[in-house]
Amino acid sequence: MKFRAYIDGAARGNPGPAGAGVFVESERDRPALEFYEPLGATTNNVAEYRALLLALERAEEAGADDVDIRSDSRLLVEQLRGNFKIRAEHLKPLLAEAVLRAKRFRKFAISHIPRENNTRADRLANLGADASEKSRRF
Q1: N- or C-end of the chain: fewer Cβ atoms within 10 A?
Q2: How far apart are CA 39 and CA 31, in angstroms?
Q3: What CATH number is given for 2-136 in this structure?
């Protein structure tokens, strides 16, 4: 089963209230799906990785074997492809987990897209950041 997801992470401040968003295109009998996750206070790069991990988790739950991820984070895409070195120690475990999860699928691809082509995932990531912000007030 094909699983094409658009992912985004958002952080207000760096670090600040953050969220992860995933928009999954409809496929045959499956409607389009939307997921978001509040992340508390973290950085934008962590939020991008958490969005990727959320998408991979949902793909696995759906029984997907062909996963295609689209992200507007060139850093994330190139780090996952092994083209950019990962220097931030706190991102290394997230990258390692993403690589392990991606290997579970028969086919996995990740590509960089322009920000303007990622508005649905961006909206979802901001919903997650909103939820993080609201939970901080109490």
Answers
A1: C
A2: 26
A3: 3.30.420.10
